[in-house]
Amino acid sequence: xxxxxxxxxxxxxxxxxxxxxxxxxxxxxxxxxxxxxxxxxxxxxxxxxxxxxxxxxxxxxxxxxxxxxxxxxxxxxxxxxxxxxxxxxxxxxxxxxxxxxxxxxxxxxxxxxxxxxxxxxxxxxxxxxxxxxxxxxxxxxxxxxxxxxxxxxxxxxxxxxxxxxxxxxxxxxxxxxxxxxxxxxxxxxxxxxxxxxxxxxxxxxxxxxxxxxxxxxxxxxxxxxxxxxxxxxxxxxxxxxxxxxxxxxxxxxxxxxxxxxxxxxxxxxxxxxxxxxxxxxxxxxxxxxxxxxxxxxxxxxxxxxxxxxxxxxxxxxxxxxxxxxxxxxxxxxxxxxxxxxxxxxxxxxxxxxxxxxxxxxxxxxxxxxxxxxxxxxxxxxxxxxxxxxxxxxxxxxxxxxxxxxxxxxxxxx
Length: 413
Prior knowledge:
Layout: E1 80-87, E2 91-96, E3 102-106, E4 110-114, E5 120-123, E6 137-142, H1 146-149, E7 151-160, E8 163-173, E9 178-186, E10 197-202, E11 208-213, E12 231-236, H2 252-256, E13 257-260, E14 264-270, E15 276-281, E16 284-285, E17 287-292, E18 306-307, E19 328-330, E20 336-341, E21 354-358, E22 363-370, E23 373-381, E24 386-391, E25 397-401, E26 405-411
């Protein structure tokens, strides 16, 4: 997704968003060959996870219902002129280059380069991915110094024995391929499951990056400090633990962790005041917009303003006031996809607002933020599942739809 962001789906139905139903790998994925520079041989780890739980752990506290922060709005007609400008195959994320061209990831493991004239070229050098369920080639982001370094970061589900792992890699964009590709980071905890998160965001100073890591439909890893699942990680540009992290001295996964207790974080942005905002898919209901603070626990799967898909109750956030509650939440679900903070000239009245794509909600949602508060302002019916959102250099809003369409939004009239 957009590197300038200041800042899937399997179960019983392949198009269901934010599914927490168990998914099993029916095939043995390919394993990288030793010496493959794109996907080096994985280091030893715990045995792969082979089964997924049906529900979150049993509640340990009485339910205290959430009564504030619900953000569901009636959908209205979009105030945009909508132009289709491209078509892709099962796309996931888009990164717009300074010249107005764009790199688009397709989950099967392809990167497409859309030129300003609308022509599309294939980009080689992509590491092997496990394109299964919610996995595949996922986010893409331009390095802060892309204009000179040409470095591009990608996240993906890397094939491993018994399943997959979320991985972060970096390569140099040559114009025809990613070259000198290096795997910088792996989540570990290999095995089955979707909900990878996989969103990449650079810090405002360009000296570090944030990576969202979903809990892989396994629930409890989000509360396990020794696992990198269900976390937002802060890493150096080379994929190591950031020295300023809350528990850096502990080493391992703890050293990399910025915040914990996340389910499936799909969007992160920094606003101009330096606040880090994140949105994530909840279970059956309970999608969230969170203000991310270092060292905080955001509650999953102990609390949620949604419930298990089985109907089994999960206590709402007020049931555990010691855990961070979302600033906004949606129930029924909207299944949030990509998110940007708008800063362009084409829609001056949206500057500083969050624009959130909705998958099951088939909408684009505008949220105003001020300090540590957020307010849902508008929800526009787009008639398609919105996978990612981007801002073009001219200020137009680009939407990447789940059906593969790339559309450009400009003011009407």
